[in-house]
């Protein structure tokens, strides 16, 4: 009895130390992040606040000075394509109109009958709409969205494009509109049933000459052109103040996202992968068309690009240079690229010989992790604009053999591009 009592006293005496050790182990486990590539569609918690709003100021803190810590820092993960990231985030209220009320009484729920007319009628009449929890088929005239409109897609909602022979289309068309918010849209293009062979401008969501547009948790796949397009109207009316958050863009034929012209853009937690079929075959592509375009106040936070037919992210603004000098402002934080064929990141800006206008500004790339680029050349720079600077902070490079380069090896690889463009690599 005395021995048993002493044993219990000893165990109880050590109990605080045991609990303390367990707590420290648990805390350590929560703070470690595996930067090994995930399978397509695997999702990890991302940077959002309690309301689901973007938190860019917090993300800016990811600038590191210790290369040994870089590989353990925040990483962007692919959103789960089957589950909306923030299902509680929607625009439904007491005034919401449910589109199912406008469908024929004997409507089908398998996406086999074209209901474009009925959906557009609802869009024209109401400001706050809710899509039903089953797929709807639309034709290549697309759906026109108006100003001051809020759309919510319920879980199970999907817009499917009927097979088209058109060179261009916009499944959701936002043209010259203001103050539009779209929650959880799921859009499937006609890439694999397309009836023509020409063209490359079939867009999942097209935003042209529009202001204050917010799109949360879009899933866009299989478009003949781009998943999302952000551009102009009449080559002069630019888009402004655009937010796209928690996007999943896969197997689109041209680009995951094409950005032609914008002043004020936040892309946060974007997944853009498996883009191939017609050039440029890039996850996120900044490609202005003319001298009226702008690339200003752009922030790309936690993008993940993988297995694209050409590049992860590309910046190619040479067509902006016409009669006026231009300034671009792009910041990219925590970019992960895996297995892109040509480069993880490319910048190209060499205008024609007769162009006298100059490009200036900065492209800042903070804490990138560029993994297994097919040709082991993750960075490609090409510009003769001496005031156009690329700055790369705390880079990580993993070659095709799976070897993580040391910082001196990474620096040596990246700084080769200094002969082709103004470049600063910061440890």
Question: Would you summarize the structure shown here?
Answer:
By secondary structure, the protein is mainly beta.
Walkthrough of the structure:
With 427 residues, the chain is mainly beta. The protein has a domain at 165-426: Single-stranded right-handed beta-helix, Pectin lyase-like (Pectate Lyase C-like). Helix content is 13%, strand content 36%. The protein is built from five helices and 31 strands. Strands 1-2-5-8-11-14-17-20-23-26-29-31 form a twelve-stranded parallel beta sheet, with no helix packed on it. Helix 4 (116-125) links the parallel strand 1 (97-98) and strand 2. The longest helix has 30 residues, at 2-31. The radius of gyration is 24 Å and the shape is globular. Mean pLDDT is 85; it is low at 1-77.
Largest beta sheet: what is the strand line-up? 1-2-5-8-11-14-17-20-23-26-29-31
CATH class type of the domain at 165-426 = Mainly Beta
Class from secondary-structure proportions:
mainly beta
- Helical proportion? 10-25%
CATH topology of the domain at 165-426: Pectate Lyase C-like
User: What's the overall average pLDDT, rounded?
Assistant: 85
